[in-house]
Specification:
The complex is a heterodimer of chains A (415) and B (63). Chain A is an alpha+beta fold and 415 residues long. In chain A, 59% of the residues lie in helices and 12% in strands. Chain A contains ten helices and ten strands. In chain A, a hairpin with a 2-residue loop joins strand 6 and strand 7. In chain A, helix 3 packs across helix 5. The radius of gyration of chain A is 28 Å and the shape is globular. By secondary structure, chain B is mainly α. Chain B has one domain: F1F0 ATP synthase subunit C (F1FO ATP Synthase, Up-down Bundle). In chain B, helix 1 packs antiparallel against helix 2. Chain B starts with a helix and ends with a helix. Classes of the chains: A alpha+beta (415), B mainly alpha (63). At the A-B interface, helix 8 and helix 9 of A face helix 2 of B.
Chain lengths: 415, 63
């Protein structure tokens, strides 16, 4: 085959020209968005400087554990970083979040900045005749007449009770943020299909992922007939977990999928879905397993019930929670090498080692973020698939006429 | 103290199990490279179940 060199270059050149214009447009759009984002972030930081008690900088290994524990927990304000200025004052950078409480005197709302970053029950906020203190990231209401918090030997408050806390905490803020992002991204993707068959812009990134979840997770595990009904839930769960996992790796310090409450809620959603959509065969196999001796059937029923209502959701919630929490602890410990080994290795050596190890573990964590979202979705699909599977009732029989378990029964027992 | 030793034993067991799963999957893939996708999926599911067990032991061991 021979192409005229001239023609080839001509076509190539024109194409390039065309693409350049397109790229220029895209780039200017990206730059505009970036400027907007930076403006928003810096304006938030501008008014968010607030003074707190002097807590001292991270000085040694004894503070590291405290910082890690603080990060793992949910908090009532959004805290980005702290520093000590030239006057020796401790400054915290971040922004407050609303606190919403249901106390003994009704609904109470105020901003978390009123606690002034206190976490030891020293600052008392008074609203509607009730006094509130923050203690170990939890808000307590003081009993009538009390003016300070009294502690017992184990540092538990003796004259304060927990209140119902509906605050927009850091995790709730993260969930709302991701919810909004998903709503915008996927509704724009869905709208594009009205006019054209191939999405443009950010939809180009999302479409293959959506198809991947549908074809690789939903279809093979639930089956060709019924997968459509559950794909919405699986997609939501997949993207929710994945984006929140990735958000946890950013310096904003989210740890949403590392909260037991969040993963438990997700596991309960899956539990409700496969319990509600379970068909007759599913309940039959759970309560009165066919193909086994009658005496064994009640024993199997107990095991199957425990498996369906306790073990399956528990394994789902613990796996996600423990993986993400362990990842965050390891990552923060590697960052802490910088402070802990400063004396022995020198500042440059400790920083170099810390950055090297952190980058390596960060790459693994990016993989884990996807893998955990995939596994949660996959197992949800598998459990739903087991609940809605249609058995053909042509169980194989061996020579003596006993029923042989078919492949699906074996798989169900195994899981 | 004993709960930590127990958690450690479970983690050793999980490590052996994960090694078995990974090794056998490798063997399977080497024998039948065209079944790679299916083997990988099954491997990840079993590994995830095992991992859940190990993490459960770790969390219970911390109490």
């Amino acid at each position: 085959m021979y192409y005229s060199k001239n023609d080839y270059f001509c076509a190539n050149f024109q194409e390039h020209n065309f693409f350049d214009k397109e790229i220029m447009k895209e780039v200017s759009k990206v730059v505009k968005n970036l400027v907007l984002f930076i403006a928003i972030v810096s304006s938030l930081q501008g008014f968010a400087f607030s003074e707190g008690q002097d807590e001292g900088a991270v000085k040694g290994s004894e503070r590291v554990n405290e910082y890690i524990q603080h990060h793992i927990k949910d908090s009532h304000d959004f805290h980005l970083f702290s520093y000590t200025n030239s006057q020796g004052e401790r400054k915290h950078v971040g922004f407050p979040l609303p606190v919403i409480l249901w106390s003994s005197n009704g609904l109470v709302t105020f901003m978390s900045s009123e606690f002034h970053h206190d976490d030891n029950g020293e600052v008392i906020v008074e609203r509607n005749g009730s006094k509130f203190v923050k203690l170990h990231s939890k808000i307590y209401e003081l009993e009538e007449g009390a003016t300070t918090v009294n502690f017992d030997e184990e540092h538990h408050a003796t004259n304060a009770q927990k209140v119902l806390d509906f605050s927009i905490t850091k995790s709730v803020f993260g969930i709302l943020l991701v919810g909004l992002f998903m709503l915008l991204a996927f509704s724009s993707l869905a709208r594009q299909y009205k006019n054209k068959s191939v999405p443009t812009g950010f939809g180009r990134v999302l479409e293959p992922l959506v198809i991947y979840v549908r074809d690789e997770i939903a279809k093979p595990n639930i089956g060709e007939k019924k997968y459509r009904q559950f794909t919405g839930y699986l997609l939501t769960v997949f993207f929710f977990i994945w984006i929140l996992n990735l958000l946890g790796l950013t310096p904003f310090g989210f740890n949403v999928t590392g909260q037991v409450a969040v993963t438990a809620a997700l596991a309960i959603f899956t539990l409700i879905i496969y319990t509600v959509s379970g068909n007759k065969d599913y309940w039959m196999h759970m309560l009165w397993m066919p193909g086994v001796p009658v005496l064994i059937r009640p024993v199997l029923a107990i095991i199957e019930l425990a498996g369906a209502f306790l073990i399956k959701p528990f394994s789902l919630l613990v796996r996600l929670f423990a993986n993400i929490t362990a990842g965050h602890i390891v990552f923060m410990s590697l960052i802490a090498i910088m402070f802990v080994f400063k004396e022995t290795l020198g500042t440059a050596g400790a920083t170099g080692l810390s950055v090297f190890l952190s980058v390596l573990i960060l790459i693994i964590e990016i993989l884990v973020a996807f893998l955990q979202a995939y596994i949660f979705t996959m197992l949800s699909a598998l459990f739903i698939g087991m609940a809605v599977a249609e058995h053909d009732h042509e169980h194989h029989h061996d020579v003596e006429g006993h029923e042989m378990p078919d492949e699906e029964d074996v798989r169900a027992d195994f899981i | 103290m004993y709960n930590l030793i127990g958690a450690g034993l479970v983690v050793i067991g999980a490590g052996i199990g994960l090694g078995q799963i990974g090794g056998k999957a490798m063997e399977g893939i080497a024998r039948q490279p065209e079944a790679t996708g299916k083997i990988q999926t099954a491997m990840i599911i079993v590994a995830a179940l095992l991992e859940g067990l190990a993490f459960g032991a770790l969390i219970l061991g911390q109490q």
